[in-house]
Amino acid sequence: MNRKADRERTSTIRVSERRSGHLQRAEKRFQPKLARITLSIANPEIEGHEGDLLSLDVYPDMTVDTLRGSIQAETRIDTTAQHLYHNGQLITDDSKTMAELNIGDGDMLALHVRDMRGSTGIPTPGASRARPDQSSSSSSAGRRPGVEQDPELVRLQILGDPRLRAEIQRQQPELSAALEDPQRFAQLFNASYERERRERYERQQMINRLNEDPFDVEAQARIEEMIRQERVMENLQNAMEHNPEGA
């Protein structure tokens, strides 16, 4: 009897151990897999903070909103100033999870720091231009109250919108080619702004000249060409104004 009881106890222990092993393997299988990602931080507002690296642990079901909170806790960078990029694409949906965005272990994200608070809208190449009756020597020419000309915000917006990027590539290929180079983009953007400001002033002079002599063929042809160029810029501006960042 004692031997039989011992065998039964041994069998019970083995069954229990097998069940325990199965449960442990099942629990391990259903545990979310921890992944470590690296963020390359670019903060143009602070010298020496270009290319800083930050490593964070994330889970597949972690949302972008939670990730932003973790970044803020580690770096004190406000969530509203965080522009996150994965594989060159701006992340705009904070409800998406790491799994949905295919962000996994070893991935690199780019974090561009740019505070959007206080902005009245997304600046565009034509968002702040001189009115025709303004002098080109005016220090405030090309500025609308409350709108700050910021090439970097424009660049970030274009990078995050494939449709807008295609439009830029079609209408301003040189500017499009500089999208990955913030400094070069800013130079071209500002040059384009100054060029258009001068052209607007010249157009106003032409209009005044035409009003004085309606039969001046040269002035008429020049005005028509300027109007054509302005329409091209207006199409680009409309595309940017109707595709705000985060849409």
UniProtKB/TrEMBL annotation:
It comes from the Eukaryota. Residues 35-118 form the Ubiquitin-like domain. Keywords: Aspartyl protease, Hydrolase, Protease. CDD domains: Ubl_Ddi1_like (cd01796). The keyword Hydrolase applies. GO terms for molecular function: aspartic-type endopeptidase activity. GO terms for biological process: proteolysis. InterPro entries: DDI1_N, Ubiquitin-like_dom, Ubiquitin-like_domsf. Residues 117-152 are annotated as: Disordered. Belongs to the DDI1 family. PANTHER family: ASPARTYL PROTEASE DDI-RELATED (PTHR12917), AT13091P (PTHR12917:SF1). This is Ubiquitin-like domain-containing protein. It comes from Phialemonium atrogriseum.
